[in-house]
Amino acid sequence: MGAIERKKRDFYWTSAGEPHAIRRKAILEKYPQIKELYGSDWHMCVQVTLQVLIQFGMLFYVRDLSWPWLVAVTYVVSGTINHSMVLAIHELAHNLAFGHNHALANKVFSIFANLPIGVPLAVSYKKYHMEHHRYQGTDGLDVDLPTELEARLFSSTLGKVAWLFVLPFTYFLRPVFVRPKPFSMMEIANIVVQVAADFAVYDYFGGKGLFYLIGGFVLGMGLHPMAGHLISEHYIFNRSNETYSYYGWMNMLAFNEGYHNEHHDFPAVPGSKLPMVSKIAPEFYKDLPTHDSWFGTLYNFIFRDDVSPYSRIKREKKANQQNVDLFQ
After folding, report:
1. Would you kindly state where each structural domain of the chain is located, as residue ranges?
2. Cβ-contact 207, 198 below 8 angstroms
3. How far from 17 is each of 2, 101, 158, 314, 320, CA to CA, in Å?
4. Where are the transmembrane segments (predicted)?
5. What's the sign of the alpha-carbon dihedral 134, 138, 141, 146?
């Protein structure tokens, strides 16, 4: 992975480029048939539509709950489904529902998937997430990286707990401060549609209905087992690797987001086909460190003294200046 340097209370710095382009090239030289996995999978639309309908159907149930029960149901049910919706939006950001020739259809469907989340984020997420792949770990370009301020404030045990609670806000607001960009017309459409949906929910189901949806997003993206993937993917638990996969059952709810090394190696492969990547090329993945549990990842992140928001690989812009064709 190249030499890694780290000073106390600092990120891990490396002069090496991101590793996935190198492994992608090596795998394709040996297993060119992996390109047959490239494309899209419209079947994910069925799961997304079902989960959207469940969320809005739940509004008829939760409007009559007491607040303690509402919070519990919001955490368990809405937190899980809305986090799954965020991961569906991730798939759609890669045009993996309708293909790269139908980018608009993927964007429109991502706005639909966004509806139960309550916060308009789908279209904005796409424009920043592509840079996370192209410039992984590059300071000032990859907004998936925590800021210096976040790392300084939240590196103690209690600080890490607090940071996980506010992660929904720091994760989606960070790009505005680190790498601001003008709004596109599709982003404005995303906002208008979402605000209209939120007003309709409030009008028909009151504050409890709106809390169930937006609260599900906030709780589900924070200290929640599903949110373990936000830590497991790129935080350094083992200095030999900067991306980690998880192969457990929660991938069924996450569009196989846990197959994260495979995803970064081949972003053009739909989540449903990612398990086939490591089956075709097992020698490239079998010795990579993995996480066994997203809940366990959160526990270790909080209580291990050597892991904190600082535990990310960073590289200067020059280390990743070469743009990589993610779909070659």
Report:
1. 12-325
2. no
3. 8, 30, 34, 10, 5
4. 67-92, 104-125, 153-173, 211-231
5. positive
